[in-house]
Amino acid sequence: xxxxxxxxxxxxxxxxxxxxxxxxxxxxxxxxxxxxxxxxxxxxxxxxxxxxxxxxxxxxxxxxxxxxxxxxxxxxxxxxxxxxxxxxxxxxxxxxxxxxxxxxxxxxxxxxxxxxxxxxxxxxxxxxxxxxxxxxxxxxxxxxxxxxxxxxxxxxxxxxxxxxxxxxxxxxxxxxxxxxxxxxxxxxxxxxxxxxxxxxxxxxxxxxxxxxxxxxxxxxxxxxxxxxxxxxxxxxxxxxxxxxxxxxxxxxxxxxxxxxxxxxxxxxxxxxxxxxxxxxxx
Length: 282
Fold this sequence. Notes:
It is a single chain. By secondary structure, the protein is of the alpha/beta class. 33% of the residues lie in helices and 18% in strands. A hairpin with a 7-residue loop joins strand 1 and strand 2. It has an eight-stranded mixed sheet with strand order 1-2-4-3-5-6-7-8, with helices on both faces. It starts with 12 loop residues before the first strand and ends with a helix. The protein is built from eight helices and eight strands.
């Protein structure tokens, strides 16, 4: 079944449309858009990924005041709990089935944004060749894992903001805390470390009492707070790059006095995307 997504750009401001991925039948996704007033097919496209609350509309509204200022269009695929239950289907990407066997790349939810982008291109909604990815909290896990597993062919810029845990660039640590057991080799690692992944960390994201803060043993080994884990993620990447003899293109931006706040982290990341996405296709 094909979906007409032209309604996503019907008017400035809020728009939405239903979508179902051909490789994930029966699992509907609501696409929510913040469209700038001066939208053109060459306007950069940014996919925005919500957290555990599956609050796509709230994240779309975070970007409403930003899309005109920074000349981007924000597209929020809302992965509902009903259609994509638990972390297995969302932040862990449906990489394995219920028995632990690896799914095909097409069955991974990490591939959904690139296929939505292909539809936007096919229907003439965008003429861009690349797009950006922003994720906060569980959405940040979605983003950095999708980049790590190679779903980045058309990604020009990516930000992982305030993730609860990280898939460290370590082949000796099993997924999802590392890249072990996924068939990733040193060549793939070099490609990952050469991608300019941007880590954004709220300096006040240190609340460990939240029920959404991962406290299992592998997570706690990454650091005692989300802020500490973000810096551990970059440090691990730099060590891996040094061992492989390649330059680590990753970066980290501390966002002062901001905690686990998707709206403020969106505002902090917006200038980065404005610069990166416009520069990508000059």
